[in-house]
Amino acid sequence: MVQPxxxxxxxxxxxxxxxxxxxxxxxxxxxxxxxxxxxGTYASLLTAPTAEADAKAMQGALEGAxxxxxxxxxxAMQDLFYSDQKNFVDKxxxxxxxxxxxxxxxxxxxEGLDDDFILPSDFNPSREVTSALSLGRFLDDLSTHNPSLTxxxxxxxxxxxxxxxxxxxxxxxxxxxxNNGKILFAMAAQPGxxxxxxxxxxxxxxxxxxxxxxxxxxxxLSELFKxxxxxxANQPGRSQVPFFxxxxxxxxxxxxxxxxxxxxxxxxxxxKPEIKIETRIETVPIPSNKTDHEEYVRxxxxxxxxxxxxxxxxxxPEEKPQHEVTLSKDxxxxxxxxxxxxxxxxxxERKIKKSLPSAPSDYDSWKIGELPxxxxxxxxxxxxxEWAGGRLPTEAEWEYAARAGASxxxxxxxxENSRDKANFDGKKGNDIYLGxxxxxxxxxxNFRLYDMSGNVWEWVSDFYSPTYxxxxxxxxxxxxxxxxxxxxxxxxFESDWKDHLRLSLRFLPPKSENLNVGFRCALDDTPATNQRxx
Length: 534
Hints:
The protein is of the alpha/beta class and 534 residues long. The chain is built from twelve helices and 17 strands. The strands form five sheets. It has a six-stranded mixed sheet with strand order 2-1-3-7-8-9, sandwiched between helices. A three-stranded antiparallel sheet has the order 4-5-6. α2 (51-64) runs parallel beside α5 (205-214). The radius of gyration is 26 Å and the shape is elongated.
């Protein structure tokens, strides 16, 4: 037990130094150029109603960030091919920063051609799509001038009312960017999907979000698009999830505006008395699972109130009513979210050949074993827990463990200040992480469990039902017997703490991705479990 504790202390001490070493590079030694095009009025296609306003909003935001903007709207084929594109590219000198923005109709090219095509205002849909403006070729032309960084943002695609000869239906494809130097490519929807068109809004949601974030000082390029993606995906009743791919290497250090220098925060207050209690608890041995080598904490049975605290004004309908629940049996719960190293062991022992999804950038191709495993489906998480001798916890078990014996609390520790002690969006207090954190970097709760709030969402066993609490059994509820989707709990490093730090929050991840969803396992208190735990 001593060695892991020492390792965690070393990581915690090193993490602030790494964070402080990062700089905010505004590339002041080179010029910034932006090509901003909004095609809204078409001779033979459906109008793109927000395109011109989108372009104007981005023009203002980019000019405010020091870009020399080439603003264009409703450009015809002749203009785009023979003057607009060439005149812009010819301005670029080695080392300059380039921002290419487009709002309007854009479609994917024919089968076998990994490219997207911008449709000019006079485009004839009976002509081959390849006669339109090739986005890939535009980027290739730019790359020959050796900019230090290229940023591409596509507000689209939006539905086109006519079949475009030679184009593939649906959304866009990400062009081959491997030969375009340092580049960040973003669009309003995931590959193969279309963006949601808002009714009655002057500008598109993704564009509006990015334009607002562009004005924030000290926000790096990668942070900006990560935040924009989360803000759009979190909109109520919305399935749109923007996409961005960062191949710029060090663009995380590029900022549109200099950071505002503020004095360092005061030192944290001295430890509260409960820290001493936690230290005493830490001396009690916590068993490790012989199979997955994770630690499991014994949770005593008990009764608690589950769901919306009546004084919580942020409660959603599916969190109501608050109701009394009794867990009649003791159980064991993973002390932390299942680590990458443990999930790797599971796949090796089960000889699973199916490849994992691509790793997030800060996971270094799934090589960092102390990070929580993410991008895992509910089925794979459940199979892992069965291999470890258990199962996913029920939603009641999860909330009981997260509340850790407290009564009537909205937030952990009954305080909004508990945000300082959990990994949510941004930095605050002990949260020094902009992205995911290794497990056990924050204080455990009174049940000795880590990261029950924040870091990554966690799967539970229950199917989702917005009305289940009204009919839930009072003893050992296991959720609806049938359903389509499963619940995640606890929030993640990309979450807004005001909503997602709340202990009663129930959440459905966007159907298109489970990027920040992990899990921990529960083991029933049986002789077999006691043999497995050492």
